[in-house]
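User: Please predict structures.

Assistant: First:
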Amino acid sequence: MKCIQIFRDGKMDELTISNKNYISKLSKLSKSRGINELVKIYSWKFEGYDICCYGWYDGDKFFENLHDLPHGGMSDFIEEDSSEKILYGDIFILKYHGTVLSDITISDYSVFYSDHFDNFSNYSSDNDDNIENIENIDNIENIENIECDDIVSTNNIIEEGDVIFDIENKDDLECDDYEY
């Protein structure tokens, strides 16, 4: 079975191991570890498979793994999103079809990884008010010199053409031509 080892520095290597006692084998193959035992930390559904991350969720500061996991990983015991959780030591990526282990290569993982980041970047919440493809963002305190034609405001965001202004005080805006 092929799986992926992601070292603390973010570099990856493909491993070939047998299905028998693979967790203990992975633990022995790790060059860097966290505290306690190697465990399944997160899993993601992808194209009919479960992509699973095994590693250590606790450890010493100098053993943090630099790899950023994709968002939305499910965990049985960690509430923090997978994209925000710091892991320690080496981490391992395995792929399951049901309960059967399947091969995963670095190339496979890269497709999964890119897909999850593309889906996340295309996500738009109601609070964002669907602001996309912005060329310039300026954080300004004084907006007296802004022309007020076609300005739309939501919360503290003022949109004028391709420029988005994040204002600190809406009362500074002297326009009749904007919406909240």
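Second:
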Amino acid sequence: MVNAIRRAAVLLAAASLLGIAGVAVAQQAPAQPDKEDVDVTSYQDWEVRCLKSSNPQQCEMTQLIKSADSGSPVMRVVLGYPKQIDTAAMIFILPLGTQLVPGLSLSVDGGQAQRIPFQACLPNGCRADLPVKPALMNKLKHGGKATVTIVGPRGKKMNLDISLMGFTAANKAIAE
């Protein structure tokens, strides 16, 4: 339990240092850098965002997932390489009202799902953070889609598909 709390704290701190909390979230947050201070490059369905003012440059890759029904944003996925851990970290930001107890699950191309607990809910949404181990990174690089399953406010399961088109190229851009 203590290790899980420490890991969550490290990931949250790392995400803040990378600017993930500010750059990645669709809504404006006080700590968000000016749009002029962020370089954005598209790699098919992924965007790489880099802070121009940071030295060395801090970058992350992100994808905004929209509802198939309404077209409104329902989830933001962010992947970065925080200095505080020796692997990539993936962050899922979901809307307030998502049921927290079941957490979320992530599967790649219909494979075995991995459960991920929520760490915190902030004004922009609820966060679930995941250190990306080499086996998962390999699946993401070679997969077609990842699926996040959550339980919505009314108890209905929702599957949110993340396109992996452009994932490898975007990851290569931020991992260097």
